[in-house]
Design goal:
Shape: globular
Largest sheet: 7 strands, mixed
Strand content: 15-25%
Helix content: 25-40%
CATH superfamily of the largest domain: Fructose-1,6-Bisphosphatase, subunit A, domain 1
Oligomer: single chain
CATH architecture of the largest domain: 2-Layer Sandwich
Number of helices: 9
Structural class: alpha+beta
Protein name: Inositol-1-monophosphatase
Catalytic activity: a myo-inositol phosphate + H2O = myo-inositol + phosphate
Radius of gyration: 27 Å
Cofactor: Mg(2+)
EC number: 3.1.3.25
CATH class of the largest domain: Alpha Beta
GO molecular function: inositol monophosphate 1-phosphatase activity; metal ion binding
Distance between the termini: 116 Å
Order of helices and strands: HEEHEEHEEEEEEHEHEHEEHHH
Strand order of the largest sheet: 3-4-5-6-7-8-9
Amino acid sequence: MSSNLHPMLNVAIKAARAAGAIINRAALDVEAVRISQKQINDFVTEVDHAAEQAIIETLLTAYPGHGILAEESGSEHGSKHSEYVWIIDPLDGTTNFIHGFPVYCVSIALAVRGKVEQAVVYDPSRNDLFTATRGRGAFLNERRIRVSKRTRLGECLISTGFPFRPGDNFKQYLNMMAEVMPRTAGLRRPGAAALDLAYVAAGYTDGFFESGLSIWDVAAGGLLVTEAGGLVGNFTGEADYMEQRECLAGAPRIYGQLVTLLGKYSKFASAGDKAAVRQAAEVTEVAGVADDEAAAQSPDDATPTAPDSAAEDTQTRPTAAP
C-alpha cells in the first residue's frame, strides 16, 4: 500500500487484494467450486460469498461505523445510517469465473453522502489494480491513466453486455447493437461491467454501454472513468445514472456520439423518441414476416407436381391410322 494514497483507498486496496487471493486460489480448481443460481443465467458461488466476507471484515475492522452495500448480503452488515457507505461487488463476472474464462474482478467503492469518493477495481487473474480518488485522477498499478483520444466513432472499440435475465428486452438490445456495430471498429462483450468501465478509463476501449446494471456494477468503474477524463451517464446522457439500471461511458467526444445513437432506447427518452423506436420495431417485424412468407412461397422451394396424365397420354400414344 502507498503512503501517498488516501487512507480509505489504502484500506479498500487491502480488502480487494484479500478477496483476489481467495478468487485466485479457487480458480486453480474451479470445477470444485459450489455454484447456486439466483435466477436463470444469474449465478453465485461460494467464492462470491467468501470474497465478500473478506472485504467486509477488512473494511469494518478499519471503519466499524461505516455502512455496507454488497451484492450478496445487501445492507445487513455495517451501520445502517452512516454517511459513509462501501459499495461492493466481490466477484463481477461470476459466469466467466465458473467457466474458467479469465475476465472478472473485484469492485469496491466508497460513497460519502451519496457521492462516490474512492474506487478500486482489481483484476486478480492479471494482478491489475485500478484505483481512483475523487479529484486526484485514476491509476492502473500506480501509473496515471487517461481515456482514449480518439474522436471518430468509426475508429473506436466499444464494449457492452448482453441481456441474459428473464424479462430483458432482447429485441431492443439487438436494435441497439445494430445502431452501434456498423459505425465502429468493433463491439466486444467481455462479461464484467466493472472491468469494462476500468478499460474505458485506461483507454483500452473507447466506450461502453449496458442496461440492467446494479449500483455495485458501476460505482467504482464510474469514478475511474470520470477521473480519467471521461464521461458517464445513462443512455440519454444524464449524470445521475448509478441506480437507473443503464450506463453509458466513454471519452467525451465518443460519449456524445453514443448518446445520439442510444438515447432513444433509454427508459428516460422522450415520448416521441420511444414512439419512434416502437414504430421502427413494428416496421422491422412486419418486414420480417413478409420476408418469411415470401421465402415460404418461393418457386425454388415448391414441390414438383406430377405431369397431367391425359396430356402425357396424348403426347406419347401413337394415333390410329386412318
